[in-house]
Amino acid sequence: MSVLLETSVGDVVIDLYTKEAPTTCLNFLKLCKVKYYNFCCFHNVQRDFMMQTGDPTATGLGGESIFGILDRTSTNSSKKYLPTEIHPKLKHREKGTVSMAIAGASTGANQEVNSVLGSTAGSGVIGSQFFITMADNLDYLDGRYTVFGKIAEGMEVLEKINGAYTDSDFRPFKDIRIKHTIVLDDPFPDPEGLEVPDESPLPTQAMLDTVRIGDDEEIESLLPPEEEERIRRQKEAQARALTLEMVGDLPFAEIKPPENVLFVAQLNPATRSEDLELIFSRFGLILSCEVIRDKKTGDSLCYAFIEFEKEEECSEAYFKMNNVLVDDRRIHVDFSQSVSKLHKDWMVKKVGAKRGGAEDLNLEQRSRPPPRKGF
């Protein structure tokens, strides 16, 4: 017995424990059948713990059972909610376990867990909200929350949700929503009065009011692409430099290679320094270009460093040459900050070579002619 959830980041299939938790599964299946979950967002995403959804109000306080929906005029709360359905064999042992969140009072769970999963004071009851675990062996949830299913397909989709950026209340800044629910197998007869819509209904205005950053909206930066790339490289270089400092490869993290040097990798072994010089000289004056070779064998190590006179010429070469085919190889171009250790070794060998002391690498160094126009 299964349900397919189509979310804004991919599809997930839930297999249900219809024998162990029949009332809970009936409630969930019929809610899916009447499209109650359509447009519900994941309003509580706690990384490597769990993700919660099923509340049309996106507050963690809404949602009701299928029986409450069928009898809107009833003031009997027992129709709006269902009692928890705990089976001794169903545990929160594995990542991808699906359980109902509690709506109602204390079930004996500790305050922290109640707060996380939506429990308030009173006897434990369930409505429409459910959560999916993203960790193994959450045994402190056993006996308190109704396990009724497990993820059969789509764990990679859950990992995307798990990695979402959230605010202090654990709601993702950019909405992640259930788009559609498809009941793949339903063993239960429909309750009296259940009306299945012919097509998915449009979200109500109240649901539209819950939108923050729509799941279909692109978050556009106000910065130009070049500035974004510069900031990205700067942050990446700082992080790698700190790592090198911690392992002892740099005396202090602020040391960094110059920004006018490109690192070119995945070269064809047949590619020579003069080949790279000819190709890259279209972007500006090249001060040096070295294909790194093994000292003993003379074989190319398939990477090189290219030093430009100006940083802006170096940046232009980076943007236009990355992933370009050179000698039937799609080269990778990056700034030397991203390979600080290799750049440091290159500089040491370069200086050593000028003094006659290079031992491991042979650097092909050539004088560079003026850049050629119209390559």
UniProtKB/TrEMBL annotation:
<keyword id="KW-0539">Nucleus</keyword>
<feature type="domain" description="PPIase cyclophilin-type">
    <location>
        <begin position="6"/>
        <end position="183"/>
    </location>
</feature>
<dbReference type="InterPro" id="IPR035538">
    <property type="entry name" value="Cyclophilin_PPIL4"/>
</dbReference>
<keyword id="KW-0413">Isomerase</keyword>
<dbReference type="InterPro" id="IPR000504">
    <property type="entry name" value="RRM_dom"/>
</dbReference>
<protein>
    <recommendedName>
        <fullName>Peptidyl-prolyl cis-trans isomerase</fullName>
        <ecNumber>5.2.1.8</ecNumber>
    </recommendedName>
</protein>
<dbReference type="InterPro" id="IPR012677">
    <property type="entry name" value="Nucleotide-bd_a/b_plait_sf"/>
</dbReference>
<dbReference type="GO" id="GO:0003755">
    <property type="term" value="F:peptidyl-prolyl cis-trans isomerase activity"/>
</dbReference>
<keyword id="KW-0694">RNA-binding</keyword>
<dbReference type="InterPro" id="IPR029000">
    <property type="entry name" value="Cyclophilin-like_dom_sf"/>
</dbReference>
<comment type="function">
    <text>PPIases accelerate the folding of proteins. It catalyzes the cis-trans isomerization of proline imidic peptide bonds in oligopeptides.</text>
</comment>
<dbReference type="GO" id="GO:0003723">
    <property type="term" value="F:RNA binding"/>
</dbReference>
<feature type="domain" description="RRM">
    <location>
        <begin position="260"/>
        <end position="338"/>
    </location>
</feature>
<dbReference type="InterPro" id="IPR035979">
    <property type="entry name" value="RBD_domain_sf"/>
</dbReference>
<dbReference type="InterPro" id="IPR035542">
    <property type="entry name" value="CRIP"/>
</dbReference>
<dbReference type="Pfam" id="PF00160">
    <property type="entry name" value="Pro_isomerase"/>
</dbReference>
<dbReference type="GO" id="GO:0005634">
    <property type="term" value="C:nucleus"/>
</dbReference>
<dbReference type="InterPro" id="IPR002130">
    <property type="entry name" value="Cyclophilin-type_PPIase_dom"/>
</dbReference>
<keyword id="KW-0697">Rotamase</keyword>
<dbReference type="Pfam" id="PF00076">
    <property type="entry name" value="RRM_1"/>
</dbReference>
<comment type="similarity">
    <text>Belongs to the cyclophilin-type PPIase family. PPIL4 subfamily.</text>
</comment>
